[in-house]
Write a structure and sequence with these properties.
This protein has 7 helices and no strands. The chain starts with 6 loop residues before the first helix and ends with a helix. It is elongated and about 65 Å long. The protein folds into 2 domains: about 5-65, no CATH class; about 70-165, Arc Repressor Mutant, subunit A (Orthogonal Bundle), CATH 1.10.10.10. With about 170 residues, it is mainly alpha-helical.
């Protein structure tokens, strides 16, 4: 509690720590209390690091998006505009993808939508890994250029695109 200031998270950390102690066979060890303390301390530090990342991300979004359209509150399933926003995002992505060459589009879709690694894409398309990287870079540059042109009609779309396809 001293570190995380949240009773539920503190309980979770302690429970996970006991589980780790048991899982790695230190439960019957004479030094188990010292080991447990170290595990708990490390889990608390990891918790605080994660909380800092979440806080920084939230601050970045608040600075990036104007008005009340905060991305971390955006959930496509609860907003009345969700269908329209999703369709607008989809249309925008398809428009940028359509502006790419066929090979570049194929590489980018394989990388970003199918989750393939660059080496896998290179083998599939019989090209070098360096060529795959260049095609991905070219596609990301196309998204960046389109964002600078102010193509998305809503600021939240701009943020979504930047998150989905970071340069």
């Amino acid at each position: 509690m001293h570190f995380v200031n949240n009773p539920d998270d503190a309980q979770d950390i302690v429970q996970d720590s006991f589980l780790a102690l048991w899982k790695y066979g230190y439960a019957d060890n004479a030094e188990s209390s010292r080991i447990l303390f170290t595990i708990i301390r490390n889990k608390c530090l990891n918790y605080l690091k994660h909380a800092a990342v979440k806080s920084n991300y939230r601050d970045l979004i608040q600075k990036t998006v104007k008005g009340n359209e905060l991305l971390y509150n955006l959930d496509f399933s609860y907003d009345a505009d969700a269908g329209l926003l999703y369709n607008e995002l989809e249309t925008y992505i398809q428009k940028v993808l359509a502006s790419l060459s066929e090979r570049c589009r194929e590489v980018f879709i394989s990388s970003r939508f199918l989750g393939m690694k660059n080496k896998e894409i290179a083998q599939k398309l019989n090209i070098s890994v360096k060529a795959v990287e260049k095609h991905i870079g070219k596609a990301l540059k196309a998204f960046e250029t389109a964002l600078q042109d102010g193509t998305p009609s809503r600021p939240v779309l701009k943020v979504l695109i930047q998150i989905l396809f970071p340069a």
